[in-house]
């Protein structure tokens, strides 16, 4: 949420600054002096020689791909004493406004996916589909080496010893040591590898942070 708000604020500020620059900048002829690519930077520039009429000035203009330009090539630039920008590059992907818009979009997408997941879990838990009587154990397990160490819920058939699967826990539930006594649980959802399940035991809902892993 903070990422989305920060992205929105920075995008708005950058857009206002860009509009102010375009209103005050002069549209002038220029030529490319240097197009060498900077491999250490994600944002490329070209050096341009701007014709100010009575004199010339050198400036560095941000571009999407510096190698798309050649030394000696004539271009039109927007110029003031602080900044120079190629007219054809005003709205390209190298623009900071578009970068911050991408960050904003990613932040909103993350929020939307989180809301969708919570909504789907709640719908599964409160739906009219039948529930399964099983046993569950909550422990600080790590079913796969690439999983971060977080609480996992392991589901077992009643009085069975072989687990059906496990899923990472989202809610703040006390974690027991691995191999601790299991509790009776009511399970709703698709009890298979990759399925979405929600278990309830000891009077609390064991909300999933991810899908069931066999």
How would you sum up this structure in a few lines?
The protein has 214 residues and is an alpha+beta fold. The protein contains 2 helices and 11 strands, in the order αβββββαββββββ.
Overall description:
- By secondary structure, the protein is of the alpha+beta class.
- It has two domains: 99 residues, no CATH class; 80 residues, no CATH class.
- It has two helices and eleven strands.
- The strands form two sheets. A six-stranded antiparallel beta sheet has the order 8-7-6-9-10-11. A five-stranded antiparallel beta sheet has the order 3-2-1-4-5, with no helix packed on it.
- A hairpin with a 2-residue loop joins strand 10 and strand 11.
- Helix 1 packs antiparallel against helix 2.
- The radius of gyration is 29 Å and the shape is rod-shaped.
- It starts with a helix and ends in an 8-residue tail after the last strand.
Structural class estimated from helices and strands: alpha+beta
Q: Could you tell me the radius of gyration in angstroms? A: 29 Å
Question: How many individual domains?
Answer: 2
Shape: rod-shaped
Topology:
Layout: H1 2-24, E1 26-34, E2 44-51, E3 56-63, E4 74-79, E5 84-86, H2 96-126, E6 132-139, E7 152-157, E8 165-168, E9 183-189, E10 197-201, E11 204-206
Antiparallel strand pairs: 1-2, 1-4, 2-3, 4-5, 6-7, 6-9, 7-8, 9-10, 10-11
């Amino acid at each position: 949420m903070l990422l989305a708000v920060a992205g929105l604020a920075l995008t708005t500020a950058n857009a206002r600054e860009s509009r102010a620059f375009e209103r005050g900048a002069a549209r002038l002829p220029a030529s490319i002096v240097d197009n060498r690519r900077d491999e250490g930077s994600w944002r490329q520039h070209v050096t341009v020689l701007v014709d100010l009429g009575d004199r010339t000035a050198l400036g560095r203009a941000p571009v999407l791909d510096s190698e798309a330009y050649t030394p000696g090539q004539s271009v039109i630039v927007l110029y003031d004493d602080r900044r120079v920008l190629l007219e054809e590059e005003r709205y390209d992907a190298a623009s900071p406004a578009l970068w911050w818009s991408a960050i904003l979009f990613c932040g909103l997408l993350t929020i939307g996916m989180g809301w969708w997941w919570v909504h789907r879990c709640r719908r599964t838990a409160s739906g009219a589909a039948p529930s399964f009587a099983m046993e569950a154990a909550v422990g600080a397990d790590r079913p796969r080496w690439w999983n971060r160490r977080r609480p996992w819920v392991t589901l077992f058939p009643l009085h069975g010893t072989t687990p059906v699967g496990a899923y990472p826990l989202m809610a703040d539930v006390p974690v027991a040591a691995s191999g601790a006594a299991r509790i009776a649980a009511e399970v709703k959802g698709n009890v298979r590898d990759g399925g979405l399940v929600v278990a309830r035991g000891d009077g609390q809902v064991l909300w999933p942070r991810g899908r069931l892993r066999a």
